[in-house]
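Hey, quick one: can you model this chain's 3D structure?
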Amino acid sequence: MASSSLLPHSLLSLPTASSRFPKSSLTISSISFSLNQVSITRTGSVAFQPLVRRGRESTFGIARAGETGEEETPAETGGDESATETLEEESSVAVAVEEKPPKKPIVKLNEIIGILNKKAIEEAETIKVVPDIKPGDIVEIKKEKANRRRLALYKGIVISKSSSGVHTTIRIRYMTSGTAVEIVFPVYSPKIKEIKVVSHRDVRRAKLYYLREKLPRFYTFKKK
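Sure thing. Here's the predicted structure for all 224 residues.
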């Protein structure tokens, strides 16, 4: 009886440590982070997935922020370049507007003499008409003498002309009382009251000194 009573008790099994504490599903996952990529190696069940996702999102957010910062910097530099270009254009426009007035030409001594000659010629032409006289022209000249009120009339052929501004002169040859006479007249002299071209002859030479050896009929003219 005693043995039969002990057998049932011996068949009872006490719970072991393994049954009390079941195997947990917790496993350690090795995580390795890098700057641009997150690599995860799982050895067991997925227990830390929320943490891994958060880590990925944070790293991706940092990478995106870096990319946007790199993209924004060229825009800022481009704006600076455009601003400098506009400033350079404005400065060039200001320089073009603020041009210095032209300098007055320096008048030399020979130029002063030329200016005075022009003024004297203009004043003489206001008093009398001076025609364009050439060698070979037959002219009539009225000249005022010092002791006479009447004007002396000279008519002859122009054998030479000296053009020197207000000091321009002509040499005429004519016959008077059977003798040949040559007289030089200053064209712009105030004593010459009138010069008139009677006729024009075409000649090849500028100096007609060869008429001195010709017959008087080539330079004899009747006065009116």
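One thing worth noting: Residues 32-94 form one domain.
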